[in-house]
Amino acid sequence: MLQLGRFPRVRLGHMPTPLEPMHRLSDQLGGPKLWIKRDDCTGLATGGNKTRKLEYLVADALQQGADTLITLGALQSNHARQTAAAAAKLGLKCVLVLEDRVTQPTDAYRHNGNLLLDRLLGAHLKYVPRDASMSTAAEQAAEDVRRAGGRPYVIPGGGSNAVGALGYVGCALEMLHQASDLGTRIDHVVHATGSSGTQAGLIAGLEGARSGARVLGITVGRPRDNQERNIARLLDETWAHLGLAGAPSRDAVEANDGYFGEAYGIPTPAMKEAVDIVARVEAVLLDPVYSGKAMAGLIDLVRKGRFAKDENVVFVHTGGQAGLFAYEPAFAA
């Protein structure tokens, strides 16, 4: 039985987030019954999926007596922005180790979007060159804090370890409860998968509840085999952390690498179409790096008949709309 209440948690987000039907998008695509789990509405400095993970990670940090949160990510990292917000809300210091992963970034990418919010939230930013060792840079930042008399807590990229994944175990249980209240079932869950913690948590929660729902991650930067190995490893660690017997089947781990395009963070025509369609028919704003590419995948798979007409497909909106302002030139045409 899943007992999340025994794990320390700091309440940071607006939970539960809405589970809403996407009637107009479903009608336009002529496909299954589409729903959206609004984890863009978690409320922490424009929200996003990392808030759920941070509720458990920050609780662990506080238990260890930390006074400084350190994390790492791309220059426009949604996770970094939410970590900075969590630190500000709790009176902690924050160091963000940021890598410029995108070739030929624009001025908007370097100064707007999440970076603007990081600065407003009071985080200390450390920039590292592309392809540098991010873990080494984060540990160096932690050592700098120690030398100055502080107590650092290093959060992995995306908040994706067994502690952070508990947030999406909780999200899975939350969705099942909401679907039951709405008198419906969940057949499939689709979302953007990057650092793997969201997908590992969702699978653990849905499998642990014996829901029968399948999770499909649309990758945002890694080939399928690589991504599925990462998800499976973290799923096993999360399952063990929950104290559950046995192990989930590897058949439960599925990632699709057909929609991230040239590389992580590089816009694609399908992403722009997906952002435009969902804005115009559902008044929901997606982001260009994660949810936009995941929605492009979902739209294409619906058009190809991947899902039965009577099935219920939930798209987990992982947030990140602040990134739209960093990608303004991509949408200017």
Provide structural commentary.
The protein has helices at residues 23-29, 50-63, 78-90, 107-111, 114-120, 134-147, 166-181, 197-208, 224-242, 269-282, 291-303; strands at 19-21, 33-38, 68-74, 93-99, 124-128, 152-155, 188-193, 214-219, 255-256, 312-317. Helix 3 (78-90) packs parallel to helix 5 (114-120) and helix 7 (166-181) crosses helix 8. The longest helix is centred in the last third of the chain and has 19 residues, at 224-242. The chain folds into two domains: 4-48 and 161-331, Rossmann fold (3-Layer(aba) Sandwich); 50-158, Rossmann fold (3-Layer(aba) Sandwich), CATH 3.40.50. The protein is 40% helix and 16% strand. It is α/β, with parallel strands linked by helices and 333 residues long. The mean pLDDT is 96. A six-stranded mixed β-sheet has the order 1-2-10-7-8-9, sandwiched between helices. It has a four-stranded parallel β-sheet with strand order 5-4-3-6, with helices on both faces. It is built from eleven helices and ten strands.
Summed up, the domain count is 2
Overall pLDDT: 96
- How many strand elements? 10
What is the helix tally? 11
In this structure, how is the largest beta sheet organized?
A: 6 strands, mixed
Look up the CATH topology of the largest domain. Answer: Rossmann fold
**What general outline do the C-alpha atoms trace?**
globular
Give Rg in angstroms: 19 Å
- SSE arrangement, N to C: EHEHEHEHHEHEHEHEHEHHE
